[in-house]
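ARCHIVE RECORD
Type: protein–small molecule complex
Small molecule: manganese (II) ion
Source of inputs: curated submission
Record status: active
Notes field left blank by submitter.
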Amino acid sequence: MPKESPSREAATLDSRLKRLGRISDERGVTTRTFLSPAMGRASALVGKWMRKAGLSVRQDGVGNLIGRREGPGTGSKTLLLGSHLDTVRDAGRFDGALGVLLPIAALEIVGRRGIVLPFAVEVLGFSEEEGVRFSSAYLGSKGYTGKLRKSDLRLRDPEGICVGDALARHNGRKTPLPRAAHAPGELLGYVEAHIEQGPVLEARGVAAGVVPSIAGQTRARITFVGSAGHAGTTPMRLRRDALAGAAEFILEVEHHARACPPLVATVGCIAAQPGAANVIPGRVEVSLDVRHPVDSRRRAAFAGLQLAGRQIARRRGLSFSVEVTQDNRAVACSRELTALLARSVRSRQGSCPAVPSGAGHDGVVLSSLTPVTMLFIRCRKGLSHHPDEYVHPRDLAVGLDILVDFLARLASLHAR
Ligand code: HGY
Ligand code: MN
Ligand code: MN
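STRUCTURE (tokenized, with ligand):
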């Protein structure tokens, strides 16, 4: 842990993260989901901080918050910085939020120090990265990069509302699929600061690192259908219990992933109908999240789990269906931008670990538009997607110093 006390700017950043973390759709926990009332309040608060940093602020048709400072000339290229403002349920206050608030604070320091940036900058607060409401991640950055498809608009949330209708309600009218906010040639790249959400930086005793690659991920909605029945009068041998079938599948998912590291596979959600203690469940829907650094291994694992589910269902007289709601390839970060960022990290803390990301990030989607680089910041015990997620203010100060140094280096590269 760095010894010096956190800077004033880091203390301000920390208090802003606390304040943003209290904006939630659910009392007593931090939960902000796509286009929710809390996301509206969060965007209003972060937009205020963006304006204070001298950025002009707008929201696009997918709910992304965009703070922009023009470059010196009309032909200036733009550097994108940002992350997501939505959260998982009962989340911590750093996942996503850090990557939006840190660049805002860094730009305030750049302004105060009179560092001239010979390019425009945009700070992005994406409206949906976690995929909580519609079981499909990156709807915000897909909208920003023009990658949103008609099939995305048809995705439905647990209330049966589709993305298209949610967007029409948000915008007050139906809008066409958004085009990319920028042409690739207009951009210098995308920089995302994010908590590591893993144990490596803490184990190495440093505050920051860079990210060579971001793992791919497949998400699906899996449905088992049997027949509901009376829990008291239906003999066990005559049952087609959808929940027992799903339970056998869930254990098979765990068993399969344990047998093939570094594969990870998770069933995070389960919904059993009709959901009464004295009724045999007739229909069960579970989520499936499968990840691996190598795309071919991830896809093979997903196919293997589908086959296992089908066999379990057949043995139990259940029907089995799979809806793939997301399939993202693994992404390599930009060597050039990451080498420059690593110089800033080394100049601040001596060494610079390269930490592949098992978590997905908006950089996966932005990589289709422009080179991406990521700055990882240490989080306590690597804990994330949990209310005890924590970054020490001294590590916030290190992250701030690194990003300011990176901007200054990039400025001198492009000043020539
Ligand atoms: O699920 C993830 O990897 C990220 O936190 N959205
Ligand atoms: Mn997350
Ligand atoms: Mn995140």
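CURATOR ANNOTATION: The longest strand covers residues 216-225.
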